[in-house]
Design goal:
- The complex is a heterodimer of chains A (about 170) and B (about 200).
- In chain A, about 40% of the residues lie in helices and about 35% in strands.
- Chain A is an alpha+beta fold.
- In chain A, helix 3 runs antiparallel to helix 4.
- The radius of gyration of chain A is 20 Å and the shape is elongated.
- Chain A starts with a helix and ends in an 8-residue tail after the last strand.
- Chain B is about 25% helix and about 25% strand.
- The longest helix of chain B has 22 residues.
- The radius of gyration of chain B is 29 Å and the shape is elongated.
- The termini of chain B are far apart.
- Classes of the chains: A alpha+beta (about 170), B alpha+beta (about 200).
- Chains A and B meet through strand 5 and strand 6 of A and strand 9 and strand 10 of B.
Chain lengths: ~170, ~200
Amino acid sequence: MKIGTRLFLIVVVVAAGIWIWTLVHPSPDRVIRKRLAEVANAASFARGTGYFANVTGAERLAGFFATNAEVDIDMPGHSRQSLSGREDILQTALGARATLKSLSVEFPDVTLVVNRDKESAIADLTAEGRVAGDSDMFIQEMKFTLKKIDGKWLITRVETVQTLQGGGG
Amino acid sequence: MPLAHGPGCRTLMAMTESQETRKHSPGSWLRIAAVGRNPKTTLIRMVVLAAVCVVVFKYILLPVRVTGISMEPTYHDHSVNLINSLAYLRHEPQRGDVVGIRLTPGGEGSSTPRVMYLKRIVGLPGETIAFINGRVIVEGTALDERYEKWRCDWNCPPVTLGPTEYFVVGDNRTMPRRDHVFGRVQRSRIVGRAFL
């Protein structure tokens, strides 16, 4: 075999090895982004979802939070809502699923900072939600604090961020 | 100029006619319209055009769809616009500019935001801004806002902007104040100026 072909094969094998390694051992950044996408997916529900599917969906959403997680939501035009603990989050999720016909949630822009210890991270993101029957979508900047607990990235705190300060809203 | 005669000439004339017929046949016109006279050149042109479009619409002129009524009557709900991200390369944002504002913190290496606020700059860094009976007061003087068609009764205490802060607000001031998102914004969050 020519030396050029050998070199080419070595490069291909090394590149494939690196690719497989990153698949098996993804970076915290990648894991958290994937997890946040799953959170958005779990928070969304379609029209006509059955009772048991709603309960499962709400439990799945609550499962992304730490047992002592805190949620502080203060959005323009809505009353402030503070939740404490996974159970509280679960009850609120169930209540939302019972009240709203459908909800579509997305986190389109995520800015992620993973701490040096790789055990905690802060995600600043845009939450985009659309409620059935409501022509406008809601858009809100939010901050998620995550911690690696028992090998899983769990949300410990969620808070709304005022993008524009000192004005209305 | 020599003239051609004889049977050989007839053959030549027949060939030329056949080429002419082929050239003007509907099939050839369709082929030229679809892939051009030189398909290779057309392919290169298409690739270059696609690359230019990707670069322009992903990094320079960012297409946005306006959602909401806070910029009425200047920009209507569901209208389409472009944000020129190169608008502030040579100079800083000016009063009256309609700008796209990213919701998540920007900075070097950050990707182009998918969601932005569209607001008008009314206050520049270092200025003191207030709302008195719906009028924007800059350094004690009422701002002449020709774009604002509908008056309101908003009142906000004076706010002094930091060295990298701008004050932005929508054109629709008839909305209840609590439903209208406005206020101070860091320069780093301003993505660019509305193009249309």
